[in-house]
């Protein structure tokens, strides 16, 4: 499997997708130093990314492997940890950085920031600040695809392992199965929920077991092996596209950083992190591609290009204008908007 | 003109909008059989189970799926059964539907109508009798509608489905059988109040079923020579400041009456606005801050009756 992928160019595309996400998030992390934490600090004036920044470092193989199979007309819903999903779905990296900086040129005009990153023009319907909230929305989008007979279009819904303990997860999976909707649920099981390990908080065997209870076929995959994710997703996306109803991909991965960028994750056993780092998805893919005969310079070029792209984005975001104060009053609602402040 | 019940008027409104716009769909529990108040009667037979969708008992998913459907190009009518159960879909309404357009910088629109019958439902106790409209009026991003008559239920439901914003649509749980003339061609804009009676002694503002108690109280007061300017607000957000404040400026006295708990109710908003803008004397009358009880004698404690309204009016004049 890995061999065919690496020789026909898809391997490089997956590698590039992961490397761009990593480069984007590394830069955003640096730009967030001094920004707000989950623990009530105020943002320092020096912070360029002022709000909470949830990094998906170490999880890049999941969005890269899944979104490689998606079209622009497919929909995607995401979580608070949504940069990777958004980039992999094809959103413009520069406008994303502008949004993280809160600038007028960001996708949301500075009204959303990292936690609400979105690009509706590529079907990415938004990152969400409420755990599990994306699931019913995804199911509704998929239901609309069915009603509007957008045959072959699907909706992909990313969520974390913590989300499966909220009611909307149960409601959405049941709904998707009852109506046979074209939706692929993707659980990014990174083992942590904020500062609490998910395992001890979850009864039973997690996302795939719960899907099984609702007669939704689920596949577990090593979420740090981009080729394995790519292969599993290929099969599941084809089944969903073909009208087979919902499927669930349970990707086992690891949250390398703290819950938010300024969280040092001191509550975590360093040995656990050290072990996880040995399975870093980018390093593994690099090793696999080299073993397939690709040369290191090609991979270095991809990494350098990603860094250059991100550096340019940082400069654009820095120079971009702030929203006008009056923009706070736009896009609230049409009926009854701005009559009384 | 034909005579219709409040619920038949609602059916007709949804039917007309479904005929006019293929994007309009209905989703909720028991809607296929017409809804528990008959407010969807015959619609599934007419439009099919794909457009009038029976759902599991999953209020969060009904509301959340409505958001997703709206983002993907449909115009869903989301049925919550009663406002009390809409609370199970509160994140989906408050954090998702109401915030989507703003939070994503105008990329998304959520044109859904969330129907959530409100108010005291006889002998139905604390979890089936609430009046929570003030909560929603407090929420930037939504429109809040509360019709009192069959005509308004017809016209305002159509307006809600056409307006393109998320709408919280609160019908009263005990108005369903109330009959009245309905002009199918009459359009009622959102945000426009209805003057029910004219008078110079006092401005009385209310909405939903409480309009009936207010009308009876006005009869009593008229017999005493007190001519009341009675206004049915109809839409709580946006509310018709112009009509209400013009009346208050004329009468210099305002009484707001609602079925909801008086504390932190929407009456406070209207009273404060009127006092600020016109300097008129204000009073408000709502239920005590107690859950609605089951036994008739307990339930009665939460009811704002005709006598109390008339007495409050006299106090304001005295
Ligand atoms: C309904 C809700 N409860 C709590 C939170 C606070 N919170 C934000 S992220 C998070 C952990 C989520 O864990 P998981 O779903 O596994 O995603 P991960 O952060 O690991 O990617 C929590 C508790 C929230 N945003 N929403």
Report on the architecture of this protein.
The complex is a heterodimer of chains A (341) and B (318). In chain A, the strands form 2 sheets. Chain A has a 5-stranded parallel β-sheet, with helices on both faces. In chain A, strands 4-5 form a two-stranded antiparallel sheet. Chain A is globular and about 50 Å long. In chain A, 55% of the residues are buried. In chain A, helix 9 links the parallel strand 6 (218-222) and strand 7. With 341 residues, chain A is α/β, with parallel strands linked by helices. Chain A has helices at 2-7, 10-31, 61-67, 83-88, 93-101, 134-147, 167-179, 207-213, 226-241, 270-277, 281-291, 296-319, and strands at 75-77, 155-160, 183-189, 192-193, 196-197, 218-222, 247-252. Chain A starts with a helix and ends in a 22-residue tail after the last helix. Chain B has a 7-stranded mixed β-sheet with strand order 3-2-4-5-7-6-12, with helices on both faces. The mean pLDDT of chain B is 97. Chain B is α/β, with parallel strands linked by helices. Chain B is 39% helix and 20% strand. Chain B starts with a strand and ends with a helix. In chain B, helix 8 (150-162) links the parallel strand 6 and strand 7. At the A-B interface, helix 6 and helix 7 of A face helix 3, helix 5 and helix 6 of B. Residues 79-81, 129-131, 160-163, 190, 192-194, 198, 255 of chain A line the site of thiamine diphosphate. Residues 79-81, 129-131, 160-163, 190, 192-194, 198, 255 of chain A line the site of thiamine diphosphate (TPP).
Summarize it.
By secondary structure, chain A is of the alpha/beta class. Chain A is 42% helix and 9% strand. Chain A contains 12 helices and 7 strands.
């Amino acid at each position: 499997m890995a061999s065919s992928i690496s020789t026909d160019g898809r391997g490089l595309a997956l590698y590039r997708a992961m490397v761009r996400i990593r480069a984007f998030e590394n830069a955003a992390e640096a730009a967030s130093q001094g920004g707000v934490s989950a623990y009530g600090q105020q943002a320092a004036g020096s912070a360029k990314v002022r709000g909470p920044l949830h990094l998906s470092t170490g999880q890049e193989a999941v969005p890269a492997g899944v979104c490689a199979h998606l079209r622009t007309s497919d929909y995607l819903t995401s979580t608070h940890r949504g940069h990777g999903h958004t980039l992999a779905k094809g959103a413009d990296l520069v406008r994303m950085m502008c949004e993280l900086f809160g600038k007028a040129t960001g996708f949301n005009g500075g009204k959303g920031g990292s936690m609400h990153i979105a690009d509706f023009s590529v079907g990415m319907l938004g990152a969400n600040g409420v755990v599990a909230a994306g699931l019913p929305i995804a199911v509704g989008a998929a239901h609309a695809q069915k009603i509007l007979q957008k045959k072959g279009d699907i909706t992909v819904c990313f969520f974390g392992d913590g989300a499966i303990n909220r009611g909307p997860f149960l409601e959405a999976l049941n709904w998707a199965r009852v109506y046979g909707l074209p939706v692929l649920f993707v659980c990014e099981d990174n083992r942590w929920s904020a500062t609490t390990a998910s395992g001890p908080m979850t009864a039973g065997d997690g996302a795939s077991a719960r899907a099984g209870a609702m007669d939704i076929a689920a596949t577990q995959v090593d979420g740090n092996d981009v080729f394995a994710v790519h292969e599993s997703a290929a099969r599941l996306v084809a089944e969903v596209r073909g009208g087979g109803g919902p499927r669930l991909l349970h990707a086992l991965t690891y949250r390398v950083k703290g819950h938010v960028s300024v969280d040092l994750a001191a509550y975590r056993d360093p040995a656990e992190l050290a072990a996880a780092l040995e399975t870093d998805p980018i390093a593994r893919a690099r090793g696999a591609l080299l073993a397939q005969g690709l040369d290191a310079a090609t991979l270095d070029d991809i990494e350098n290009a990603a860094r250059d792209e991100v550096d340019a984005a940082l400069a654009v975001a820095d120079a971009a204008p702030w929203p006008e104060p009056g923009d706070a009053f736009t896009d609230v609602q049409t009926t009854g908007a701005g009559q009384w402040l | 003109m034909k005579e219709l019940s409040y619920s038949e008027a609602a059916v007709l409104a949804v039917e007309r909008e479904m005929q006019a716009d293929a994007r309009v769909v209905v989703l909720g529990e028991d809607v296929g059989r017409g809804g528990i108040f008959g407010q969807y009667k015959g619609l599934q037979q007419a439009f099919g189970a794909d457009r009038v969708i029976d759902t599991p008992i999953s209020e969060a998913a009904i509301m959340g799926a409505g958001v997703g459907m709206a983002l993907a190009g449909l115009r869903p009518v989301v049925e919550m059964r009663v406002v009390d159960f809409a609370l199970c879909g509160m994140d989906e309404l408050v954090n998702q539907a109401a915030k989507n357009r703003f939070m994503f910088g105008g990329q998304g629109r959520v044109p859904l109508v969330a129907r959530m019958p409100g108010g005291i439902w006889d002998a139905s106790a604390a979890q089936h009798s609430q009046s929570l409209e003030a909560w929603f009026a407090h929420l930037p991003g939504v429109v809040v509608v509360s019709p009192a008559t069959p005509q308004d239920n017809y016209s305002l439901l159509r307006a809600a489905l056409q307006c393109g914003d998320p709408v919280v649509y609160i019908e009263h749980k005990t108005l369903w059988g109330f009959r009245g003339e309905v002009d199918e061609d009459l359009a009622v804009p959102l945000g426009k109040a209805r003057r029910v009676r004219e008078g110079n002694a006092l401005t009385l503002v209310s909405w939903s079923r409480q309009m009936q108690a207010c009308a009876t109280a006005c009869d009593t007061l008229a017999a005493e020579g007190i001519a009341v300017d009675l206004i049915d607000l109809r839409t709580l957000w946006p509310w018709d400041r112009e009509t209400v404040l013009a009346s208050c400026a004329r009468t210099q006295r305002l009484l707001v009456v609602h079925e909801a708990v008086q504390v932190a109710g929407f009456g406070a908003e209207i009273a404060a606005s009127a006092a600020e803008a016109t300097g008129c004397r204000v009073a408000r009358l709502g239920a005590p801050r107690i859950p609605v009880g089951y036994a008739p004698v307990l339930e009665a404690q939460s009811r704002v009756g005709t006598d109390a309204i008339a007495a409050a009016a006299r106090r304001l004049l005295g």
